[in-house]
Amino acid sequence: MEISLSKPQKSAVKVPLGRILVNKRWRGSLLCKELDSADSKVAYSDGLGFVDFFPSDSCAVIYITEAELLTPKSFTERINLLAKEYHNRGVVIVDVCRSTSYQDFQDLACIELELTVYPVSQQNEIPRILRALTYAETRQTNNPFKNSVEEETGLEKQQMSLLKLIPSVGEKAALKLLKSYGHISAISKLSEERLACKIGKADAAKVYNFFRHRVVL
């Protein structure tokens, strides 16, 4: 599938309530067949440019495949565009299965660009993430006169929905982490010791290793 580096057209980014807007290059894919279920419905658009999914008009998601992760030039432009156009409302889902390049990617996306990065090991994990984002986004008040406080509330809901998808992290632990550190990009950089101060050693180990894509049973 050819990946565009153009910006999304404003007229194309109109997400129907409760649906996920999907770049038309994904039409017919197994991912979208799984996504277009009783729990969620998709709408396709050919004007989304470098963005793969929009759970809402203001939340943009790109998916970096394992093949892209092995060729930095192919993903660097896209994540830079995401950081520039959507700042802290941009989310990167990255396939890290068998890849040794994830640490370099994480350094760029999280530390330099401060993007929200969510690692997956299989493509079939993506629908669950997108549904969680859609649910969080549709809970926001659809008010064109939002002030900065309301924008922050929307961001917190987005971040909370993603943190709660991490094994062993419930609402209480997610809330503690967000209140202390504000954003997943900051949480993903923390040492295991600093995490343990907030949520205990056992959960801290799981969160720490999740963001480094190591499995802890």
From TrEMBL:
One GO CC term of this entry?
Answer: Fanconi anaemia nuclear complex
* SUPFAM superfamilies, per database record: RuvA domain 2-like (SSF47781)
Q: Name one GO molecular function term.
A: chromatin binding
Q: Taking every annotated instance into account, which residue ranges of this chain make up the domain Fanconi anemia core complex-associated protein 24 pseudonuclease?
A: 13-130
**What organism, scientifically named, is this protein from?**
Frankliniella occidentalis (Western flower thrips)
Extract the InterPro entries matched here.
Answer: FAAP24, PND, RuvA_2-like
Kindly provide the name given to this protein in its UniProt entry: Fanconi anemia core complex-associated protein 24-like
Q: From which domain of life does this come? A: Eukaryota
Q: Which GO terms describe its biological process?
A: interstrand cross-link repair
